[in-house]
Specification:
The complex is a heterodimer of chains A (528) and B (247). By secondary structure, chain A is of the alpha+beta class. Chain A has helices spanning 25-32, 57-60, 108-117, 174-188, 197-205, 224-247, 252-272, 279-314, 319-344, 347-361, 371-374, 377-397, 405-424, 431-471, 476-508, 510-521, and strands at 3-4, 7-8, 37-38, 42-52, 64-69, 76-81, 87-93, 123-124, 128-138, 144-156, 159-169, 190-191. In chain A, strands 1, 3, 4, 5, 6, 7, 8, 9, 10 and 11 form a ten-stranded antiparallel β-sheet that branches. In chain A, strands 2-12 form a two-stranded antiparallel sheet. In chain A, strand 5 (64-69) and strand 6 (76-81) form a beta hairpin. The longest helix of chain A has 41 residues, at 431-471. Chain B is α/β, with parallel strands linked by helices and 247 residues long. Helices cover 42% and strands 16% of the residues of chain B. Chain B contains twelve helices and eight strands. An eight-stranded mixed β-sheet of chain B has the order 3-4-2-5-1-6-7-8, with helices on both faces. In chain B, helix 1 packs across helix 12 (230-246). The longest helix of chain B has 17 residues, at 230-246. The N and C termini of chain B lie close together (10 Å). Classes of the chains: A alpha+beta (528), B alpha/beta (247). Chain A binds chain B through residues 1, 87, 90, 136, 141-144, 170-173, and chain B through 30, 48-51, 72-74, 76, 81, 219.
């Protein structure tokens, strides 16, 4: 059913905001009804929370997930609402509600959410009160020709309030709806294009993650120190922001993003490393190395849990057999998480961040001391990219089907460095060829990642199996299921290993190298 | 999208009341429902307070040149829409006869609505005609209201025979008793014995009640003005069983 949502038109500069109080709907209905009759106004109040992932996957796809409590200990009513206001799916969810879609009861809601939300956790917004006044306008035969509603959504934490008057033009009676919306717009200043107050409130209560995920320098000609400083600042912002998310245990993506920001920071610090050691950069290097190390165990276990969930989805018949493994992994993960939270609350973390922030905020001189810092970033990054690329080609070409896993792992690490440095200049390179280069690098990196991660996971699974068997946490059926799971991983590893030659070949091709050189040596890339 | 037709060769058995009340229950439970009033008398259209007029008349409905979506009117009830009747529907047989592959015309016309509705409920005129054959090809199930009388049962047997002859084996017949007066011995006997020979019979009977007649003055489905009445409860149970059977 199409709907029109009037909001106030701007009447004067600075008067853009909507009226704080909606004129009583009965008065609006009476003023605009023409020959139609208005039903007595009805009012409803609701109290609800909105749910979305940390990266706002639902909002980006135009959805809103509402959770309405029924009472103490009673299940919550969840409703997935599309942009048009239609309920796509609904379900009653026992409290405390699970955060992962995998743990929701089977049914239309889970089915609708799964492809959008995937492995991300659902975070609740603060409580929202929704007051809605409704009235129907009828013709002489008593048929409803259109509906009016005035909705106000407000939150006390933080104090936010948003209202809108809405006209629902019914199918087959659009002319009536349009006419009434036009009158409301002219008489009361509510224009027909405002979004739903709940959606507006959702934007401020569940904001998008701050800043670009992977910041890039803006000008290849800038001295490296000054060009990289804002990138490092943005990455430190990400570290701090994500650390808060990790501490609150919002979603495993928080830790992943934190670790990516750490690795990118380290790649930039290596780029700036000169013969004359800079104490602040050296300290930051040590800090990020430590942070990378202490976040590792939790991330590894996060990956295990994700993999366990994925396996459970793929093979529901084995789900029951693998439940003890899931419990074990979650318990281990919770232990690692508790330890990580202590590290993120530690003086070492706080001081590390503070000191690095101070260094980043220091004057331009502090970032122009060394030859490297004064070299144009395009040139500096270009040299590093070409060097890393040569190393990738050399190391990758030496890999044969019999090469040990360590050689692939070493290549993976070089690949990561190459990609991170390349992405520093992403915005200054011509977009199309840069995207093509990145795509190939990512494909190769993903394959190397699959080879390494599946091997590590299979080994860890066997270790977990041994411990669980020894401590009596798993019976023979579970141990066999764990063995089968480890075998699955081995098969995946072998498949990824077999793919290596075909994903490496395009990267090693002369044409790819030429393209990389043209990008990094070209005018936009900062020249030779 | 499932298509359910309320049909009986015989008139006055409660087809329209069934179509309107089942549609209302389904929509209230969250399904998106479209009622198509194929009966030129337009009783379902009247119950929903919609004007019995369709753009282009019967020709607009069957020619395929007009998008069915353009003919749809929202009712006063959430998720419940209607394609109203038009007096020109009395000539639907002739209009269909003039079309190629006329028996599959309605099924083809309804197909584009699959994304918009979960259920289409067809309120059919009585008699066996080209219109009803078109309905049989479009429907997943025929909900057949029967009054517990000998004549009514006879028309049901005729319908069964027709289905066999036309090889409409995929068409499910879902008979149930309506306007049942349990004070009458004959009604009681028929209602109790019919399922023994007809396993497809729905295990719900709608009792005779003056409240059903009030639908005409209230111009609304039963559950909207008499939600606690026995017929309203019966239609609710009936829909639950139909929805379960058609999946």
């Amino acid at each position: 059913m199409p709907s029109r949502t009037p909001e106030p038109q701007p009447r004067a500069a600075g008067a853009r905001e909507r009226p704080a109080v909606v004129t009583p709907l009965a008065a609006i209905a009476d003023a605009v009804r023409g020959t139609l009759q208005a039903d007595p106004e009805e009012m409803t109040t609701r109290r609800l929370r909105l749910l979305d992932t940390v990266d706002r996957r639902l909002a980006r796809r135009g959805f809103r997930l509402e959770a309405e409590p029924a009472g103490d200990g009673e299940p919550e009513h969840w409703r997935l609402v599309s942009a048009s206001g239609r309920t796509r799916a609904a379900a009653d969810i026992a409290v405390p509600a699970p955060r992962l879609v995998d743990d929701l009861p089977q049914g239309p809601l889970r089915k609708a959410l799964a492809p959008i939300v995937d492995i991300r956790g659902l975070q609740p917004s603060p409580w929202i009160a929704v007051v809605e006044h409704r009235a129907a306008l009828r013709d002489t035969a008593g048929k409803i020709r259109c509906r009016l509603s005035a909705r106000t959504a407000s939150s006390t934490d933080p104090g936010e309030r948003c209202s809108a008057v809405r006209v629902d033009a019914l199918k087959g009676y659009r002319t009536d709806g349009d006419r009434i919306a036009d009158r409301i717009s002219r008489h009361f200043g509510w224009s027909p294009s405002a979004p739903d107050p709940l959606s507006v409130l959702a934007t401020s209560l569940l904001p998008e993650p701050k800043g670009a995920a992977y910041p890039s320098v803006a000008d290849a000609g800038l001295p490296a120190g000054l060009a990289l400083r804002p990138v490092l600042q943005a990455l430190l912002d990400t570290v701090e922001h994500r650390a808060a998310g990790v501490t609150a245990d919002l979603d495993c993506e928080e830790l992943h993003e934190l670790r990516v920001a750490v690795r990118r920071s380290r790649a930039i610090l290596t780029l700036l490393r000169s013969d004359q050691p800079e104490p602040e950069l050296e300290h930051a290097r040590g800090f990020f190395a430590w942070l990378g190390q202490v976040t590792g165990p939790t991330r590894d276990l996060d990956v295990h849990v994700l993999d366990w969930r994925a396996h459970r989805r793929r093979s529901p018949d084995q789900a029951a057999d693998l439940e003890p493994l899931g419990r074990y992994l979650k318990a281990e993960r919770d232990k690692a998480q508790a330890k990580l939270v202590r590290q993120l609350h530690s003086r070492r973390f706080r001081d590390g961040v503070r000191r690095w922030r101070r260094a980043l905020d220091a004057g331009d001189d502090a970032w122009s001391r060394t030859d490297r810092a004064r070299t144009p970033i395009g040139k500096l990054a270009g040299r590093r990219i070409r060097k890393l690329y040569r190393q990738v080609v050399e190391d990758g070409s030496a890999i044969t089907p019999d090469s040990p896993a360590e050689e692939l792992h070493a290549l993976r690490k070089t690949m990561k460095k190459l990609r991170y440095v390349f992405e520093i200049g992403r915005d200054v390179y011509p977009a199309k060829p840069a995207a093509a280069v990145l795509r190939k690098l990512k494909e190769l990196q993903q394959d190397l990642g699959e080879v390494q991660d599946t091997a590590v996971q299979a080994e860890a699974l066997r270790r977990f199996g041994e411990i669980m068997g020894r401590t009596g946490a798993a019976g023979p059926v579970t141990l066999m299921a764990i063995g089968a799971l480890a075998e699955d991983l081995e098969i995946r590893r072998a498949e990824a290993r077999a793919r290596f030659a075909s994903v490496f070949a395009p990267v090693a091709k002369r044409r790819f190298g030429d393209r990389l050189r043209r990008l990094t040596r070209g005018k936009a890339g900062g020249g030779r | 999208m499932k298509v359910v037709a309320c049909y009986n060769i015989k008139g006055g058995v409660g087809k329209t009341a069934t179509a309107v009340n089942l549609a209302f229950v389904a929509a209230r439970e969250g399904a998106r429902v479209l009622v198509v009033d194929l009966d030129p008398q337009g009783a379902a259209t009247f119950y929903f307070r919609v004007k019995p007029k369709v753009k282009g008349g019967g020709k607009g409905l069957v020619s395929g040149k007009r998008d069915l979506d353009d003919l749809i009117k929202a009712t006063d009830h959430d998720r419940l829409d209607l394609i109203p009747a038009d007096f020109s529907f009395r000539n639907l047989d002739l209009l269909l006869d003039a079309e190629k592959k006329s028996k599959k015309r309605l099924a083809r016309q309804l197909k584009p609505l699959a994304g918009d509705y979960d259920y289409v409920i067809l309120d059919c005129p009585p008699s066996v005609s080209l219109v009803s054959e078109t309905v049989f090809h479009a429907a997943d199930a025929l909900v057949v209201p029967l009054i517990p009388t000998t004549l009514s049962l006879r028309t049901y047997e005729q319908l069964g025979t027709f289905r066999e002859e036309e090889k409409l084996t995929g068409l499910r017949l879902l008979p149930f008793f309506s306007m049942v007066d349990r004070r009458k011995t004959m009604h009681r006997d028929i209602v109790d014995s019919f399922p023994e020979s007809h396993g497809e019979a729905l295990p719900v009977s709608v009792p005779y009640s003056s409240v059903v007649e009030r639908m005409g003055s209230e111009r609304a489905p039963l559950a909207a003005f008499a939600p606690k009445s026995a017929p309203a409860a019966a239609y609710e149970m009936l829909w639950a069983e139909i929805a379960r059977r058609i999946g």
